[in-house]
Amino acid sequence: MAQLRHDHTEFVSRDVAVVVVGPEDAQGFSAYFQKEDLPFIGLPDPKASVLKLYGQEVNLFKLGRMPAQVLIDKEGVARFVHYGHSMSDIPSNEEILALADEINRKN
Fold first, then answer.
1. pLDDT tens digit sequence for 58-90
2. According to the model, what pLDDT value does residue 84 have?
3. Is residue 26 part of a domain?
4. Cα 34 from chain centroid (whole Å)
5. What is the distance, to the nearest Å, from the Cα of residue 75 to the centroid of all Cα atoms in its chain?
6. Does the residue 52 lie in any domain?
7. What are the residue ranges of helices labelled H in 7-92?
8. Which residues pair with 88 in a beta bridge?
9. What is the number of structural domains in the chain?
């Protein structure tokens, strides 16, 4: 999430809303977001409803949920999905921003 926070203004300037979905309950998630002063939306998903909806992998040998990034356009269509195979398998902000620019140009 530090990576996302680093370029948050770039996301905002491109009209991209960052939503982080996590396994904690609402109280735990809220406390973490306040403690870390995260500028984006946090969505607690303790029952893994969103995880199941998007097919995010859980691997208990690799500390739980594997990272997943989904770019959804303004019509609600998923235009890009990346499922990480480890906690470090995350596209760079530059990649995500370039994809967002491309999606925004098409819409």
1. 666 656 677 788 888 888 888 888 888 877 888
2. 84
3. no
4. 17
5. 18
6. yes
7. 8-13, 26-36, 49-54
8. none
9. 1
